[in-house]
Amino acid sequence: MATGQIYDKTFKQEAVRLVQTHEKSQRQVAEYLGIAMSTLSRWCSELATNGERAFVGSGNLQPEAEEMRRLRRENEMLRQERDILKKLHIEFLALIS
Q1: Helix axes 26-33, 9-20, angle to 10 degrees
Q2: Where in the sequence is the domain holding 7, given as residue range(s)?
Q3: Are 11 and 38 in contact (CB under 8 A)?
Q4: Fewest CB atoms within 10 Å of the CB: 24, 41, 77, 97?
Q5: Structural contact between residues 65 and 17, judged by C-beta atoms closer than 8 angstroms
Q6: Do 45 and 73 share a structural domain?
């Protein structure tokens, strides 16, 4: 069994397909492919949970996670802009009084 091996989406889908079509058991498929049974089990769960959105790969986020990340960045920028405007407002009030 290789450690740290990266498998592509197609490989994972085919491994899960072998299990789902009952051609082989999880243990047999895992041994045949040279992967841990826990890895194959995780792939089966991920495909069952996420369907076509499963196995997006390293660095590629699910659409919801990417949207959340974008919104957090936008929120932080808005906070910074607000803080700048507050400081300018206070300075402006000090100048006119």
Answers
A1: 150
A2: 1-58
A3: no
A4: 97
A5: no
A6: no
**Three-state secondary-structure class, residue 69:** helix
Q: What are 29-69's pLDDT values in tens digits? A: 899 889 999 999 999 998 888 877 787 766 666 777 778 88
> Where do the H-state alpha helices sit in the chain?
9-20, 26-33, 37-50, 63-96
- CATH number for 48: 1.10.10
Q: Give the tokens for residue 47.
A: 């495909």
pLDDT for 2-38, tens place per residue?
A: 456 888 888 898 899 888 887 778 899 899 889 999 9
